[in-house]
């Protein structure tokens, strides 16, 4: 995105992320954000408490403690997402101000399952985020949250604790 001071964390060879953790409160915030955008796709970022790379690299676990919804400006919001540019910049500042770090990008699939779509593969401009989360509302009463990491041009599912 060409934003200086971006809190993105890149993967080193020694820091493979295999697990993700979501507190009950954060899980409920994430689901609320996705449900309220329905039938459009919700999108936003997930932050962790630790500032800087430590949040992701201490033990290879992505720990989410905050949800920052971002307005979806895609031309077809029912089937795609694109971050509102000013929301995105404001969110990066808020995360830094709160001494957090960006640990993931999320979006919802209102109808499709929680698997990366062709558009998700093509839209990996956020490929340096530690994790990429898809929330499926295909069964609205029973949403599915699935985190992935992006490595070697492919999505790899993370175990969600
Ligand atoms: Zn998607």
TrEMBL record:
Signal peptide: none annotated. The keyword Protease applies. Residues 20-154 form the MPN domain. It holds the Pfam family Prok-JAB. SMART domains: JAB_MPN (SM00232). One of its GO terms (biological process) is proteolysis. Keywords: Hydrolase, Metal-binding, Metalloprotease, Protease, Zinc. CDD domains: MPN_like. GO terms for molecular function: metalloexopeptidase activity; zinc ion binding. InterPro entries: JAB_dom_prok, JAMM/MPN+_dom, MPN, VirAsm_ModProt. PANTHER family: CYSO-CYSTEINE PEPTIDASE. This is MPN domain-containing protein.
